[in-house]
Every structure is written in C-alpha cells, then in structure tokens.
Write a structure and sequence with these properties.
Elements (H helix, E strand, L loop, with lengths): L9 H7 L6 H12 L4 E2 H7 L7 H13 L3 E7 L2 E6 L11 E4 L5 E3 L23 E4 L2 H5 L1
Helix pairs in contact: 3-4
C-alpha cells in the first residue's frame, strides 16, 4: 500500500499511487478526508456538488481506491458498504468501529486495538480483521 500517513492532500495521495487526478477522485477523497465516520457510496454522492459526477463514477473510483489501499470498506451495514481512508489501519487490521443502536451514528475508535491473531486456532490464517461494536453512544446513553 502506497500511503503517506502524514499527508491529507488528495492530489498528493493520487500522485503517490500513480493515479490520475480527476475531478471525481479529488471530490471523493476530499469528502472522505473531512469525514468523522465511514460513509456509504450514497452519502458520498449526496455530498458531491457536481452533477457531472454520477454514482457509477463514484463506484469505480472507490473500487480503484480499494485496489490501491487508499480506502477500505470499514464495514457493511444492511448490505451497504461504508468507506473511509485507510491511513489509520494496517493492511490486515482495521481499527474498531462503534455504531450506536439508537441514533445510528458510527464512531471510529482509533486508539483501540483488538488483536485476535494470537489466540487463533491452528491452521487458520487471517487476511483482514474488522471489529464492529454496537451499543449506545455517550449522547444516547444519557437519554
């Protein structure tokens, strides 16, 4: 994965991965770089203010980003994938996510690590670890 953890500039990120800097790719990376939680393709499409960028273009760009390790599927909720920049995760372990069962907001738990690889039964090989926690966020727990 070619990704410099110190840069947040979408244009630089595309160049580092030898990808063309298209309007759609830059728009998607700008949205994801400002996001506080993973976004679905639909949410990304709603935030793009350019009518020339359609859902197919967004889908293709996200798949290109997945192939280059720029973004990853943070999780899938109701069969809808949610994406985020991959700079907080390793190639085999994504940071845990917490989804509130009341308000539906998802929070990235960047400082939490849950390594399962040490207690894995013999013969199993992990390709990727994702952890999704569910419960009440602090705001909803107060109500």
């Amino acid at each position: 994965m070619k990704h410099d953890k110190t840069t947040n500039a979408p244009r630089d990120l595309l160049r580092q991965n030898n990808l063309r800097c298209t309007t759609a790719r830059l728009a998607i990376l700008n949205i994801l770089s400002q996001a506080s939680q993973p976004y679905s393709q639909e949410t990304i499409a709603q935030q793009i203010n350019d009518e020339s960028i359609n859902k197919v273009t967004i889908y293709r760009a996200l798949n290109t980003f997945l192939d280059h390790g720029i973004v990853h599927k943070a999780f899938t909720r109701q069969r809808i994938a949610h994406y985020e920049l991959a700079h907080h995760c390793s190639s085999i372990q994504c940071h845990p996510h917490f989804t509130c069962t009341r308000c539906g907001n998802t929070h990235c738990l960047l400082n939490a690590k849950i390594p399962l690889t040490k207690n894995l039964p013999k013969g199993f090989k992990i390709h990727r670890q994702q952890v999704i926690l569910q419960g009440l966020c602090p705001k909803c727990a107060k109500n």
